[in-house]
Amino acid sequence: MADLLPSFRGRPPGARRLFDTLDEGVVIQDADGTVRDWNEAALRMLALTPEQLRGRAPVDAGWQLRWETHAGPYDASEPVRAMLRRMLEREGVTVAIRAGAAATRWIAISSHAVHDDDQPARETTVSTMTDVTAQRETERENARYREIIDTLDASYRILEESPIGMCSVDVDGNVLRSNMAFLALGGAEATSIVAMVPDEDRATLRHAFTRLIEGRTPSVRIETRVRKPTGSEAWCEITAVAMRQGLPDAAILLLINDVTERRRREVRLRQLAEMDPLTGLHNRRSFVHALRERLASLERPRRAGGEWVLLLIDLDGFKEVNDTCGHAAGDAVLVAVAAAIRDRTRLDDTVGRLGGDEFAVLFRSGLEDAVAIGRQIIARIAEAALSVSGAPPVSASVGIVRLRPARRAEEVLAAADDAMYQAKRAGKARVVEADP
C-alpha cells in the first residue's frame, strides 16, 4: 500500500484510477497532520467535502461522529484531520458517523505510519476505512438470536427461519439438527461439521467443543474454510455456543456466516499493497520482506531447501527510451521487460521491481545454473525491448549473489548492486557474481 498511495504527481494516469477504484477509503497525511491525498470512498464514508477533510471548512451542523470506545462525541472544534492523526496512537478504532437525516454508518478506521524508502526521515500516516455497518447489523442479529435461543422458550422455528447457517452438534461435531441456510451451505449429506473443514483445522474445532462442554468458555469463534457439496470451498466464521438450556437434544449451537467476499476484499487490498502497479510484480517493500524471510530460513537448514541466489537486474540504455520516445514508451518497455523476466522464471520464484528500471529475482538454484538463467534473462530483455515500436535498443546488466546465513537483506542487495555495476563497467549486457 505504501508504494501505491503516496502523491501521484508524475505517476502514470492509471495509478490514480486504481487508487479511486478501491472499495476501502484511504486518507494520507504528512507528519504534521496535513492531508495530502484521499480517495472518493473516504469522502463518501466520512460524509465530508475535501475542504472539510483538510480542515479548511467547518463541518455541517448536522454532522455527528461518535467514538465506539471513547467517552463523549466528537468535539466539533477539532479539525477532522487532527482526529484522524490521533487514531494513529490507537492503531484501530470504529466510529459512528451521521450526516443530517441520513442513517448512522459504522466505519472501521486503521492508521499506520509509513516511511519513504528514499527519504527514511519522512513519515506519512495512511488511514484506511471500511464500512462495517452491515457487519455490525449482522453481529447484532447474531446476538439477538443467541439471546432467544439460549432460553427455555427458544424454539426450532428460529433456526429454520434464520438467514444464517445454524446447526446443533454434539461434542464430536456430529450434526443433530440444522436449518435451511446450513443445508444450502453444506448440503443435505452434511452429517459432521468436523468433516466439512480442512484437516489442519479439525483438531482446533474439536478442542473448542471440549472447552465449551467443560464450561471453560461461554463461546468460541473460528474462521476456517467449509467444503460445499459442489467441491468448492467458502470461508466461514463459525461461532460456537454451549447450549445448557432451550434445545434438549443439542450440546453445542453453531452459527455459520459466509465471509468469503470479505476475505476476497482483504486479499485484494493486500495484493495492492504488495504489487508494483505498473508491472504487477512485487514492489520493493514486498520483495525485501520476501528476501528477509528467505535469509531467516537459511538459519534453519532443514527448511532452507538447497541453495538460493539473488539476481539484480538494471537496464542499459533505458534513459534513451524516455528521452527519445517519451515516458509512455518507457512504461511499455518496463512492462515488456517484466513479462520477459517472468517468462524465464518459475511460478514460485519471487520477481520484483525495486524502482525505476531496476528488477530483482529470488530463486533456488546453484550458482552455475543461476548464471545461465541470468544470461537468458538478458537475451529475453533485449528481445522484449525491441517489441515496443520506435524504442531504441535496451540491454541489461546483472549482478548475482548467493544467499548465506547470518546476512542482512541490505547487505545482500548491496553486494548484488556492486556486482551489477561491475557488469556495467565491464561492457554491459553480462552477468557478474558478487565477490564472496
Strand content: 25-35%
Question: Share of helix among residues?
Answer: 40-55%
CATH fold-level label of the largest domain: Alpha-Beta Plaits
Straight-line distance between termini: 35 Å
User: Which residues sit in consecutive blocks of at least 5 with pLDDT less than 50?
Assistant: 1-15, 246-250
How many beta-strand elements?
Answer: 16
Strand order of the largest sheet: 2-1-6-5-4-3
Largest beta-sheet details? 6 strands, antiparallel
Give me the Rg, rounded: 27 Å
| Shape type | globular
State the CATH superfamily name of the largest domain. Reverse transcriptase/Diguanylate cyclase domain
Kindly state the mean pLDDT as a whole number? 83
Any idea what the CATH architecture of the largest domain is? Answer: 2-Layer Sandwich
Characterise the protein shown here.
This protein has 436 residues and is α+β, with helices and mostly antiparallel strands. It folds into 3 domains: 13-131, Beta-Lactamase (2-Layer Sandwich); 137-262, Beta-Lactamase, CATH 3.30.450; 276-433, 2-Layer Sandwich (Alpha-Beta Plaits), CATH 3.30.70.270. Helix content is 40%, strand content 25%. The chain is built from 16 helices and 16 strands. It has helices spanning 13-20, 40-46, 50-53, 80-90, 133-149, 156-161, 180-186, 193-196, 199-213, 260-274, 284-297, 301-304, 318-325, 327-344, 367-386, 409-425, and strands at residues 25-30, 35-38, 63-67, 92-99, 105-115, 123-131, 165-169, 175-178, 219-227, 233-242, 252-258, 308-316, 350-355, 358-364, 395-402, 431-433. It has a 6-stranded antiparallel β-sheet with strand order 2-1-6-5-4-3. Helix 13 (318-325) packs antiparallel against helix 14 (327-344) and helix 14 packs antiparallel against helix 15 (367-386). The longest helix is centred in the C-terminal third of the chain and has 20 residues, at 367-386. The chain is globular, with a radius of gyration of 27 Å.
